[in-house]
């Protein structure tokens, strides 16, 4: 089996990198220099026509979208390692629920705040009303996450799973890049801390 992982540090690829390390699978890494525009080269576009990282090639089959890649890796390698629930179980249903919510709902809100506030984007494209609306949604979603994590260490089952890696990675990125305040949500703050300090994630950060 061969796995090639295309990534750029501190991007959406980071959570896939973390998951690969947690799973302990063998893979080859290829760094894509986004600033140099390597994502637009024909050979990369043949793998991901969107010209974005991450991408993964498994035995010649290209994949893109970090969530799809994590779900694939979980099904294929995570069950035996106790990092992903077996399909058909209640925990699998919960894992899908929370990982998709984290990427689509919570992740979507985080990106709306980012696009409408961050100096990387031209002032004329940033909309204060949109940012304010997204911040309100973010508060409501943090409350949901905090309730879920109150009295439990991880999002699904008793132990850490790839759901925790995927979701805490996105939130930790948001806290760094958009300076969001989550002090009113102690269960969320403790969970992020618990997750990002795992050796696999520390190894990814150290290598970046
Ligand atoms: N929804 C995609 C997002 C991928 C994405 O936006 N990647 C960014 C880095 S975070 C990228 O490669 N941008 C390069 C570009 O747009 O030129 C995923 O989760 O994989």
From TrEMBL:
Keyword Transferase on entry: yes
Gene3D superfamilies: 1.20.1050.10, Glutaredoxin
CDD domains: GST_N_GTT1_like
Keywords annotated in UniProt: Transferase
Domain named GST C-terminal: residues: 88-208
Domain GST N-terminal, first and last residues per copy: 1-81
Keyword Transferase: yes
Gene Ontology MF annotations: transferase activity
PANTHER family the record matches: GLUTATHIONE S-TRANSFERASE GSTA, GLUTATHIONE S-TRANSFERASE-RELATED
Family, similarity comment: Belongs to the GST superfamily.
Protein name as annotated: Glutathione S-transferase
Organism from which the protein derives: Nannocystis exedens
